[in-house]
Amino acid sequence: MLAIDVELLRKEFQVQQSRGGLKGAFQDLFHREYKHVTAVKDISFQIPKGEICGYIGENGAGKSTTIKMLTGILVPTSGRIKVNGFVPFKEREKFVAEIGVVFGQRSQLWWDIGVVESFQLLKKVYRVSEADYKKRLDELVDRLQLADLLSRPVRKLSLGQRMRCELAASLIHNPAILFLDEPTIGLDIVVKTEIREFLKSLNQRYETTILLTTHDLQDIEALCSRVIMLDDGRIIYDGGLEELKAKWGKGKEVVLQFEHPITLPRLQELTSGLDVAWQLENELSAKVFIPYERANVSEVLGRVVGVLQIQDIKINETNTDDIVREIYKAGSADVKRPEETKQPEGAFTHA
Questions:
Q1: For 93-152, what is each residue's pLDDT tens digit?
Q2: Pick from 226, 245, 264: which residue ends a domain?
Q3: Apex CA 216: angle with CA 211 and CA 219, to 5°?
Q4: Domain containing 52 — which CATH number?
Q5: How far is residue 209's CA from residue 24's CA, in Å, rounded to a whole number?
Q6: Alpha carbon distance 188, 201 (integer Å)
Q7: Residue 57 to residues 54, 74, 311, Cα–Cα distance (Å)
Q8: How many whole angstroms separate alpha carbon 277 and alpha carbon 288?
Q9: Vertex 212 angle, CA 207 and 214, to 5°
Q10: What is the pLDDT of residues 202-216, one digit of tens each?
């Protein structure tokens, strides 16, 4: 069953262009000039029920515009949307009862009243029964550690505390689909980890579908098996995170610390026939670069560990941020970058 079904979705805006100077401002009073902007350009994707999908892109790529159309805030210029079986901008009352939304830089909580009073107001908005509300609130308070925050006004909460409360507010009515737009922006690593763990457990327990937009790619790595990447209003990648790494990652670098002195020819001899590259750092330390799809870590280590005494092993993988940056440079994830066959910088020597 599909939670989200989008076909040839498009959103266009008319943006006023202001002319400079006093003369320009005077002209704008009588004759305004507009620029035509297409924020989302005929995108199509489907998200099955129960999936956590990352929706990523640079500023201005069209992420937030898409989320606003999927939540019914904006009406598409053209295309088709179905979210949990509803057309968001047409069936508003029924539709909003099925979704939860968290915008990282906007609050759905009332600023000057206690957190629990905001929850009670949302209970009435969503027409949640008293029994369901109490059961749901008890669970959210326990899982998100909100007991000490319920009586505080929202304005007196730290950013991390407020975001935990925002998450709880979006889940009071137990929605089938949760839209998260930059939910961890500005948070410290401890709070980010807590929120990620909560979202994973929410998905596993209730099969809640989650669409997550973020600039923090660690959120994507921690939560998402699938990534949709947007650039200039178009989808340039839609697939698994591991497939993205395999196609665009340079490979893995393994650093080995040996018990006894070792030579480069000996390491090359042990991995003969494998497409790997060695670099000797000193007589007790060496690096080996293992390209994706040409060799694997277990095979390399199997040959070395069985013969030489190893003191320590460290595996470094291509950072997801670097991969995404390379894809944006290329303009599409379908075309591999020209330099992908090059070995990494440094004096590596092939075995």
A1: 889 999 999 987 678 899 999 999 999 999 999 999 999 999 999 999 998 989 999 999
A2: 245
A3: 55
A4: 3.40.50.300
A5: 49
A6: 20
A7: 10, 19, 41
A8: 5
A9: 155
A10: 999 999 999 999 877
